[in-house]
Amino acid sequence: MSRLLIVNPFASGVDEHRLAAVRAALPEDTVIQLTTAAGEATQLARSASDFDAIYVFGGDGTFNEVLNGVDVDVPLGFIPGGGTSVLPRSLGLPRNPARAAQRIARGTTRRIGIGRVNGRRFGFSAGIGFDAELVRKVDELGRHPDGRRPGDVAFMRVATSTLWARRGRFDARLEVEGAGRAAFVLVANCSPYTYAGAVALELVPDADFDEGLAYVAPVTLRARDLPRVLLRGTRGTGIKGAKALAAHDLDRIVVRCDEPLPLQVDGEDAGDVVEAVYEAERDAVTVLV
């Protein structure tokens, strides 16, 4: 029995030097597998049932692939190698990949709940509308010659241009079953929802790995509201308020859209949806922390 290290060499924080430091921090019997294409980490995880643990060095997209590949209860160790790496940071791991590898090598585990949307697992978030639209537009910028995605600066530039194109207006375009209509919906199983560099944005602050799913869905949103929303996010109070629907510790959330709207799953474009069925998987995965 040994450990498997799945590495995405195209992730923005992965290079030969960092990989060597990560490898040195992990147990000697760790086997390394480098991915070469999207979806390959899912197949590697699916065939890794004989390993004592699976370590993953990459970004949130690679972590998501592994979550959707594992079909046995093998401990998973997520090592931050992406531009944001929300999942390991939300688990309390250091941003430095070598230090994170040292932590997970100790073998301390915890159980966490995750989510599914239309059958696909997610480790921290799956939004419909505004945030998914931004993910798609950043992807449309293409990748750098080394295969890496644009970073936070590009994301902020896209967000600004999208707000300008919409004249700062986000009106109701979907319905959360049993709750009402909203402009977009942010669904999460943990908090923070995402990060802006070193700053955590707790947009769905009631989300918790130890509970079911939580969501926040602004009924409407205007450009003038955004500074307050972001400030509340950095303070851990989220978007909740009179102009937003919100609930937490749910087993199921159904969202119906007026027209096809973009869906993001753990920061990856998952295409357009007219209906999304979210389901909580409580106490589903063993992770190394």
Low-confidence stretches: none
Percent strand: 35-45%
Structural class: alpha+beta
CATH class of the largest domain: Mainly Beta
Mean pLDDT: 90
Characterise this structure.
The chain has eight helices and 18 strands. It has helices at residues 16-25, 40-46, 60-67, 86-90, 97-105, 130-140, 152-165, 226-234; strands at residues 3-7, 30-34, 53-58, 76-80, 109-117, 120-122, 126-128, 169-170, 174-176, 180-182, 186-188, 194-196, 199-201, 213-218, 221-222, 244-250, 252-265, 268-288. α2 (40-46) runs parallel beside α3 (60-67). It is globular. It starts with a strand and ends with a strand.
Brief overview:
The chain is α+β, with helices and mostly antiparallel strands. The chain contains 8 helices and 18 strands.
Which key phrases capture this entry?
single chain, about 290 residues, alpha+beta, Rossmann fold, Tumour Suppressor Smad4, 2 domains, 7-stranded antiparallel β-sheet, 8 helices, 18 strands, globular
